[in-house]
Each structure stands twice: as structure tokens, then as C-alpha cells.
Amino acid sequence: MADGKEGTDLEASAKPGVRRAKPATITFVILIHLGALCAAVPWLFSWAGLVLLVVMVWLTASLGVSLGFHRLLSHKSYKARPWLRNTLLVLGCLSLEMGPIAWSATHRLHHRETDHEDDPHSPLVNFLWAHIGWLFRTHPILDDRERLRKLVPDLEGDPFIAALERWYFVPWIVFALLSMGIGWLLGGWQLALSLLVWGTLLRTAWVWHITWFVNSVTHLFGYRNYATPDDSRNLWWVALVTFGEGWHNNHHAMAGSANFGRKWWELDPTYATLWLLERLGWASSVNTTKQLGARSPLVELRARPTAVSRALKSLLRRR
Known about the structure:
This protein has one domain (5-318). It has 15 helices and 2 strands. It has helices at 5-14, 23-37, 47-74, 82-93, 100-112, 127-131, 145-149, 153-156, 159-166, 170-216, 236-241, 248-253, 269-279, 297-303, 310-318; strands spanning 79-80, 283-284. The protein has a two-stranded antiparallel ribbon with strand order 1-2. Mean pLDDT is 88; it is low at 1-16.
């Protein structure tokens, strides 16, 4: 997309209007981060807590958010047996990001209005807004019940999804209490608090930030396989920590596709899990996009300099 007046107009249109602050959300996010920082206390470390952190990051970020909330619910890129679908959605709720309806509505709106005024988290405002700031302000569409429902008419009538939307925080609380209880039985209060801090608080903050990296960083840095009309980018390290979500330009080019990696070296562990689930007969109607021809990543990236997004250019101009 050309630079100049068009970029300036888009930058101006992306600035959010007057929106009310969300004190409860701000307070809760701060408290979770303060709890996560307790992982730096040596007394609260345990190998069991570390293992629980790693396992739960995979279960909540890859299976819950990416495979459940994103590829299944938001884009309908495959079908899953009811028990598998419900399990994935509960795992998504364990991320404590949003309920399944609000999450899907937010993401669908992002695709509809990418890098425009109603995009919930465009870095054309600034990096912090795209990464976390948008959570702390109301949105004229997402915080209007009737307008939000128009984004997710296929989800509103499902009783299980509706119940999860209302009580999405309950699985998170139950998991925290259950892991603490098991820790107390096996090792007393030290292990109980360790599992709470590492397996719930630090894990929650970690999954939040890797999800937010997709919103912020992959609209600023990276390369493009497709000439989409937005600033989506592919960024290898975001793909690594998000189990494949960082191939964001690929995703924006064909949002309904279940496989995000398009070249042999663009690894997508979440799609690999879906491939296995399909072979087991638990998933079906998997929508995929054919692979692109590719040389080695080093040759390709050296031959083609990384594109710079309009948002990054804007940020650099302000300095």
C-alpha cells in the first residue's frame, strides 16, 4: 500500500475516539502481573510448578486459544466432535482472556476492520495500545450488546457456549484452587503456593502476552507472503512462542484456513495437533491452503529484506 497521504489518513482514522476506562479490568490485570512476579521469589520455585507452567501454556494457548477460540470458533476452519469442541473451549477459558463469544467477536471485528478505526487493537494508534491498552477502554461495537451479537449470530444460540461466556472465569478459579489443593496434599503450603504462582498466575500472564504479541508485533515487523490490504506480517519468533499464530500475514490472506504455515519451514504446531485429531476421527472438514514453494529461510530472508509496516514508519516519524 502506498505511503504518503493514504498512510496519514489511515493513521488518523485508527486513533480511538472518546472511550470510557475500565477500572475493574485495569485492576485485575495489574494484580495478575503482580502475582506472576512472585515467581522471582526463590522459595516459590518448584520443578512441579515449572512443569505445570509448560504443560498449561500448551494446553491453554495452543489447544484452547489457537485451536479452540481462534481456528474453530472464530473462523470455522474445521469441525470437531462435541466433546472435543467443548474441551477446547474450556481450555480457552482457562487462558482468562475473554469468554468464547467476546473473543470471537473481537477477532472477527479485527479481520473486518484491520488497521482501520474500528479495529480493536491496531498499532496505527501506538504499540502499547495494540498490545494491551485497548483492553482498558470500552469499544463502541464490542461493548454494545446488540452490535456485538451481529458479529457472532452463529454462537449466541448455543447453550454451552452461552454458559461459558457468562461463567468463563470459573474454570480458571477451579483450576487454581484444585492445583493448590493437590500441592498442599503432596508438599504443604510451599508446593501449593508454587503451583498457584507458576501454574496459574505466571502462566496466565505469559499466555496473555504471547497472544497480544500477535495483535501488536506482527502488525509492525516481519515479512509478507501475500499482498494483503493490511499491515499483517509473518514473524518467526512470535510463531514459535504462539504455536504457529505468528504467521499472521498468511492467516490474514486466507483467514478460513486451518494451517497457518505456508512454507516448509513455517512451522505450525497447532495445525500439527489438528492433523492428528483429524486422523483419529475427532476432527473433520479441515479447511487447508496449499503450501508455497520455498527455498531455505536464510536464503529467502536474505534475498528479500523485511518489509516495514506503515505503523512502524509512523512510530519512527514521531520520535
